[in-house]
Write a structure and sequence with these properties.
This protein is an alpha/beta fold. It is 17% helix and 32% strand. It has four helices and twelve strands. The strands form three sheets. Strands 3-2-1-9-10 form a five-stranded mixed β-sheet, with helices on one face. A five-stranded mixed β-sheet has the order 4-5-6-8-7, with no helix packed on it. The protein has a two-stranded antiparallel sheet with strand order 11-12. The longest helix is centred in the first third of the chain and has 10 residues. The protein is globular and about 40 Å long. The relative contact order is 0.18. Pfam families: Metallophos_2. Keywords: Metal-binding. This is Phosphoesterase.
Amino acid sequence: MTTSLLLLADTHLPKRAKDLPAQVWDEVEAVDVVVHAGDWVDLTTFEALRERSRRLVCVWGNNDGPELRAEMPETARWELEGLQWAMTHETGAKQGREKRMDAAFRDTDVLVFGHSHIPWDTTAPSGMRLLNPGSPTDRRRQPHCTYMRVTADAGTLTDVELVALPGRHRVRDPSVVAGCSTR
């Protein structure tokens, strides 16, 4: 059995946008699991995502107040499709991230994180996959807003796709975003 996942982070609602883009809500309804790596900012978005998701796995970020922190952990761990998953909002500087996360998240196959708004897809020395979906609402220094689609099947990630949201900031070659492949 395969499981489809939507990876989100850094939605910052309603400060950076009034709502998630319609395309993201369509994805929420289509996937098996929604994963949100923190910086929601408002409880309303969390409640709406929880209501519309088949399954929601989430953590709080540095911009999330007491209401959100009461609803979710700072770090989440779960098993899915034979893979050990973990999620946290912040992982520190990009230099040395893979080695630091290997030490912090032993026995983890996939680590999802946020905070930087910069899409990230690398593999640590241990083989752990590190994924940051960017932000669907606040592109910061990136060419556009993003999220990730992931498919897990029998102990493997069979597909990881960085999705660039349409908007006024388009990239000529959407296969390359901040050093990440949109394979």
